[in-house]
Amino acid sequence: MATDRIAHQPLHPSAIARLDHEYIEFHNTTLQYIVPPHTLAWNPAIRNAPAVPGGAPPLEVAKTRDFELPHTKIRTFTPRGETPEGGWPVFIFFHGGGWTLGDISSETSFSTHLAVGAHCVVISVDYRLAPENPYPAAVEDAIDSLDWVLLHGNTSLNINPSRIAVGGSSRHDIILPQSAILTLKAAERTPPVPLVFQLLVVPVTDNTASIENLWAENQHSPWLSPDRMLWFRDNYLPNAEDRKKWDASPAFAPKELLARVPTAWIAVAELDILKEEGVLYGEKMKELGVEVETVMYEGAPHPIMAMDGKSLIHPACDLELKIRRHILFFCNQGR
Predict the structure, then answer these.
(1) What percentage of the chain has pLDDT greater than the value 90?
(2) What Rg do the C-alpha atoms of the chain give, in angstroms?
(3) Which residue has the higher pLDDT, 307 or 188?
């Protein structure tokens, strides 16, 4: 006997006219029936739920290896082909999931596509998750991943330590600020670690934002609702006084430090509550002389960035192509 499915995330009427038509169809047939994790009693098993549907299948790479860090591990993806002169460029990658969801396997598709398309080693960081490991655990693991590349990358993977880029993209909800924070931490060191590029896709940059300010315009957009975002925030940043620290909210980084970060490419979604955070962060860097390109995907809500396997959802496919081109260019610049 057929049963009626329950729409746990129906589209809000005010958002429908602004949304990408292909996304609307996919949301109505698939996404709206997924139970939002923040509505459930907390259980680590929530992490076993599938990521955002619509992603492309992974590609074959030459080698996949795991390495231990002090508190967690990394997974490395090396593409096929000859090692470039000087060693492989490397992209340190942080999966999405609001500090709470996702793991080292949840974005294998993105990692392999980037390794193949940008011809670089991709390092995926299995950072510790909240609420079991709140701030600053994820930041500490990000720093450890950079230290591993600098100390062991060349001998273990033939990595070129002068061609390091960082960033993230998401199959699980929000992109964390770890990549932006890591560029700040690298610039803060004596001597600074010269990263070549940062990729920020639908990022969180201000953990004080709310529907009273930056989220107001898109508070009724699908998938990443204010309640869901606050659930993530409370899991990772239970102490309100930590939310303005720049290694939790890079928007509050000192100007003299922000001025020293590498070239940035930022992708924001027009109907994402995080849109204004990404735009404003890009503007701050530009004002300080950092080379920044910010691209807004019209009609796109937050999760569309993970749907590169849905050929009809054009913003997702365009984003995938642009990411590969930018990483390929910056990681190989100067050869």
Answers:
(1) 78
(2) 19
(3) 188
> CB neighbours (10 Å) of residue 161?
16
Asked if residue 207 lies in contact with residue 249, where contact means CB atoms within 8 angstroms, the answer is yes
Strands (E), the chain: 63-68, 73-78, 88-94, 121-125, 159-168, 197-201, 264-271, 292-301
Name the pLDDT band for 333 (thresholds 50, 70, 90).
Answer: low
Q: Could you give phi then psi for residue 167, rounded to 5 degrees?
A: 165, -165
Question: What is the reported pTM?
Answer: 0.93
d(CA 178, CA 66): 20
**H-run or E-run covering 153:** helix 137-157
Instruction: Give the H or E element holding residue 22.
Output: helix 21-29
Q: What is the DSSP letter of 242?
A: G
Do residues 335 and 86 make contact, with C-beta atoms less than 8 angstroms apart?
yes
The SS3 of residue 91 is strand
Contact, 142 vs 125, CB < 8 A?
yes
